[in-house]
Amino acid sequence: MIKIRLRLLSYTKILKDMLGVGPYLLLLGFIVEGMAIISHQWISFPIPLSPVIQAILTIPCVTAFSICIIWINRQINTIKVNLLNKQNELITSGPFAYVRHPLYSNLMITIPPLLVIWFANLLYFIPWIIIILVSHFVVAIEERRLIIVFGEAYENYRRHVPALIPYKGAIGKRFIKHT
User: Fold this and answer.
1) Of 17, 54, 55, 79, which is the most exposed, with the fewest CB atoms less than 10 Å away?
2) Domain locations in the chain as residue ranges
3) Which residues lie across from 46 on neighbouring strands?
4) What are phi and psi of 46, to 5 degrees?
5) What percent of the chain has pLDDT over 90?
């Protein structure tokens, strides 16, 4: 019984190390978006979108979200293997070559616009802005730990690759070539 409990605690720690503070950001997103959905009854800033336009705008968001999740999942499997083998290897390939936090980036860039499109209401920009602002604080908390774990390698990676918005284009790829 004690061995099972210790193994469960070990897996819980591995899961916490792998996910960081991300689940809290996701939970906040659900809460803020839920509050917007509830308040939609009383506060509304409708925009005229026909069902055809909504469908056309939904396709690129869902496609981008799906591609990113598949791509990120492959990288998370690599991280999981490293954690299970007690290795501290900084992953800088795949989506991590474009942003340091691709899962947060994907959620920020694709989910809130879908709510604006589906509900045809500008009210959903408010939670989006809140999520963007809070995510910068969440990233700062997570990166303090990453700097402790990876040291100068992470600092160098941090100088070349943006945190959430892939605005620097191929700079991340150039970082990979130099390491």
Assistant:
1) 55
2) 22-178
3) 121
4) -65, 150
5) 0
Looking at the chain, how many residues does it have? 179
Other Cβ atoms within 10 Å of 28 Cβ, number: 16
Cβ neighbours of residue 60 under 8 Å, at least 6 residues apart? none
- Mean of the per-residue pLDDT values for the chain? 75
pTM for the whole thing? 0.69
C-alpha span between 104 and 22 (Å, rounded): 7
Assigned CATH topology for domain 22-178: Four Helix Bundle (Hemerythrin (Met), subunit A) (1.20.120)
**Count of alpha carbons within 13 angstroms of residue 124, beta-carbon side:** 21
* The pLDDT of residue 8: 47
Nearest to 18, CA basis, from 97, 85, 82 = 82
| Closest residue by Cα to residue 103 from 163, 148, 146, 153 | 163
